[in-house]
Design brief:
Layout: E1 7-12, H1 16-27, E2 32-38, H2 41-46, E3 55-58, H3 67-77, E4 82-87, H4 92-101, E5 105-108, H5 113-124, H6 132-144, H7 157-167, H8 172-179, H9 183-197, H10 202-212
Parallel strand pairs: 1-2, 1-3, 3-4, 4-5
Amino acid sequence: MVSTEALTALVIEDQREIREGLQVLINGTPGYRCAAAFGSMEEALARPAGDAPQAILLDIGLPGLSGLEGIPLLRARYPNAAILILTIYEDDERIFRALCAGAAGYLLKKTPPARLLENLREAVDGGAPMSLEVARKVIALFRQFQPPERADCDLSPHEMRLLKLLSEGHNYKTAASKLSLSVNTVSFHMRHIYEKLHVHSKSEAVAKAFRSGMLR
């Protein structure tokens, strides 16, 4: 579903050519707007907290504070923004750390421009976009986990159904449709899931559910 309002994005990228290219791409596409672009995490955090973006394109290899170190700081400042990693790195450790820190998705810089814009919209709509190579690594990482014999969890059957849909790639809108609920109701249930699992994002909730054996 294409929103009638412009999707507002923030870019944090230290390479000027890439940063300016992303600005041109976003601002030159109907339905998208680049609110600001910064060359470091420090510059981004010095920006006034107003005009909160809906999505943040974040590089990992930044001077000073790295993108990984900056994720929790950005989430504290912009709790409703979807943080998308955009990087050249595709090693297991960085992928895992980024997703556990609360990144909504993980993209490689070779992602085609049209697909990048689709990924921005998907993340804002509740999805978890990943480059194909990254998705394969995430699946491989999950397979390495040995879940305990039983999972101590007090999620209700309804909450478990919602979490399973999200693990299958559904966003809030499509999960709401599957469960015949409103998106607001799904958001309400997700807040309870976060509290019960002691996590702060959908990615963390799904990862913890897999690790604990709640999802197979």
